């Protein structure tokens, strides 16, 4: 089977998921995993599809026909690379007063230690009691076995104090 990764974006309206799912199904594809969301009136997502190699080009063409309803970009999925090194799961929760740069700072610290982000969810909410906006993030990541968790934890705690957020690590 061939794996395709679809990115979709368009103005939010009823029937967008059904339109993509219908094309995938009619062309023999199997919808494996996805993350889809409405953000500020736009609908966006990423979808992993498997399909017989000989049918992949037909599916690509059919998805292009959705232009006008959704912009769909098709990427070839990659086989998971074997780095030879075991990785440990890590969940990081971040919460604090919202300000620019939180995601950039946290992701840069993780990159420095070779940590790979598998999933990132963020949101801002009104913090009525504090008179501003509250930023919350959850990072699900993989930490290479060669990385010292105490060093990584210390770096994230130092960063949290510097950018004035709370960071909680879990496995």
UniProtKB/TrEMBL annotation:
Cross-referenced Pfam families: ACT, ACT_6
Superkingdom per UniProt:
Bacteria
- Residue ranges of every copy of the ACT domain listed in the record: 5-77, 91-171
Q: Which residues cross the membrane?
A: none
> Gene3D superfamilies annotated for this entry?
3.30.70.260
What is this protein's record name?
ACT domain-containing protein
Q: Which organism is it from?
A: Microbacterium arthrosphaerae
